[in-house]
Amino acid sequence: MSTLTRAATPQEQTRAGRLRLRGLAWLMVRQHRPALLTCAAAVLIGTLWMIHERGAALDTLHAAGWPAKSRDALDGPTVQRLDNSFGDAARYLGYLPFLFGVFIGAPLIASDQEHGITRLVSTQSVTRMRWLLWKLGFALTPAVVTTGVLGGVFGWWWRAVRPVVSSNWFDGSVFDNSLPVLTALTLFTTSLGIVIGVLARRAVTAMVLTLIATAAALLVGDYLKPRLATPRRVAFPLDGAHPAVLSDAVQVDQWVGTSSGKVYGWGTCVNDAAPEACRAKLGIVDSVWDYLGPDQMAPLQWTAAGLLFGASVLLVALVVWRVRRRAL
Predict the structure, then answer these.
(1) Interior CA angle at 60 toward 58 and 65, to 5°?
(2) Average pLDDT over residues 25-37
């Protein structure tokens, strides 16, 4: 009598074994499954929502006559509604550096230290460095994938409706939430959280300190951002219209100047009893702007991303040094 079953061959057993997670891979997935599922849900839901909102915005604008009509000629409430939807997406993306730093970076190693998991791992046939690399890979890979996808879709949305929304390219809502800055910023905050967690050795303490440190770092970043590129200068008559080069430009500073190119502070002669006579005496005839043009957005973003990435590498190196030199 024939049989319908047969023993698995060695090749099939090997293939089946490879499909199962083992060792540190199994531990990482098991230990951090909620975070992985949350990141996957955020990417899926966020991407679909932004694609839908982008399509709905373009359909509404085209039905209203845009781009033949300018933004000012469109229905005010309609433009405001589209602008609010875009602003909501920017605000949600702005939370990602905080969320990754506080909820993934800070407790990543601190929680294991606090609950004795590091001591348990050290008793197994796993080196400390291998365990650390798996932990770092778990934290940094979801940060790159999540922010890379969401930041790319958000930038695609912004470029489509750029002339209509109120946010200019230098605003944090656009500059910080699109590629490559969003990814680099999230890598930095996650790395910062990991360092604080290693030093604090308590998950809740590390999370609070990471929240404070991240907020402080973002304030410093906002201060340094205009200094990452060299502003351009243009002069035009005091009472004249703005030249075309200032369209969609970001003002960095403003002066008043003479025909020979000498500049004074913008408030010069403003409070004088006879402003016109004061300007005539000094020879002031021009308004002078220092500005950043929209074509400087990409170099600025990549410069900022490079600095943030370099800082992240230093922070990760500090974690590796600390783990190798001292007991966890």
Answers:
(1) 90
(2) 85
In this predicted structure, which of 9-18, 189-198, 268-277, 311-320 has the lowest mean pLDDT? Answer: 9-18
Dihedral (CA of 139, 145, 148, 150) sign: negative
Contact 309, 187 (CB under 8 A): yes
Of residues 22 and 97, the one with the higher pLDDT is: 97
Are residues 224 and 296 in contact, defined by beta-carbon separation less than 8 angstroms?
no
pLDDT attached to residue 1? 41
Q: Angle CA(141)–CA(28)–CA(119) in degrees, nearest 5?
A: 120
Mean predicted confidence (pLDDT) in 292-305: 95
Domain ranges of the chain: 21-229+296-325, 232-294
Residue 45, pLDDT > 50, answer yes
